[in-house]
Amino acid sequence: MSDLNGKTVVIVGGTAGIGLATAKAAAAAGARVWAAGRSEAHRDKAIAAAQGAFEVREADTHDAEALAALYREAGGIDHLVSCAIGGERTLKPFLQQTEQQFQAAYGKLWGYAKAVRVSAPFLADDGSITLVSGSPARKIKPGQSALSCVGGSVENLVRCLAVEMAPVRVNIVSPGTIDTAMFDWLGDDRNDRLNAMTAGHLIKRAGTPEEVAEGILFVMKNRFVTGTTVDVDGGRILS
Ligand SMILES: NC(=O)c1ccc[n+]([C@@H]2O[C@H](COP(=O)([O-])OP(=O)(O)OC[C@H]3O[C@@H](n4cnc5c(N)ncnc54)[C@H](OP(=O)(O)O)[C@@H]3O)[C@@H](O)[C@H]2O)c1
What we know:
Elements: E1 8-12, H1 17-28, E2 32-37, H2 40-50, E3 55-58, H3 64-74, E4 77-82, H4 99-105, H5 107-119, E5 123-132, H6 145-165, E6 169-175, H7 190-198, H8 209-221, E7 229-232
Parallel strand pairs: 1-2, 1-4, 2-3, 4-5, 5-6, 6-7
Helix pairs in contact: 1-8, 3-5, 4-6, 5-6
NADP nicotinamide-adenine-dinucleotide phosphate is lined by residues 12-13, 15-19, 37-39, 42, 59-62, 83-86, 111, 132, 134, 175, 177-178, 180-182, 209.
């Protein structure tokens, strides 16, 4: 395993949830970490969580100039991670979605593609890229066609990049249901509804962002892993 000590880790979508947990874990392992996101609210929480252990910056994954400024300030990249949702999450049967809703889901793919494309001149040859997909990519359920199609595209993009960008390693971490800000819309019933959503999974609870971050650090550090999908999903795709 390579050591993260002194390595530069840039996390697009690193100001909340899985990205923030990854920023904390990488910084704890000795990395120089830059975590970026759009909203001041998330950035303020991330700055408070960082306690000076990592840098927090503003960047939208759809803004190439902001990404380039971030990568430049980081002074090169050993490990790039993107967790930025970047698109709409429409949970409806395909025929009940508008064409615009279905297309808007692909914002995630375009954001990931931009984060990677802009990073190329900054990436170390022995570095890595990790993109976060999600279990709907391979666990097909009614009402999730937008998430499934985008997740599948992200996973295929990663395999293409792994082949084309070697020796840079490119991997996917695929979470199941994880208790993050993504579920803030559940409101006061949050715990009950997350429990109901995960009752049929092999591990009957929502995962934590820290559990997913551990998967991200694994693919970052292991020099023999590329083009791989690491599922951190409590067995969701088997249930
Ligand atoms: N939580 C789950 O159950 C779950 C399951 C499967 C897959 N995933 C995937 O895992 C990834 C991380 O999700 P999460 O649960 O950690 O979500 P989260 O807690 O909502 O965090 C998302 C992070 O991405 C940032 N972000 C969103 N849009 C962005 C944009 N356009 N440009 C830059 N940053 C952006 C957010 O900050 P700002 O909003 O301030 O920009 C925040 O820092 C996503 O790709 C998500 O689809 C999550």
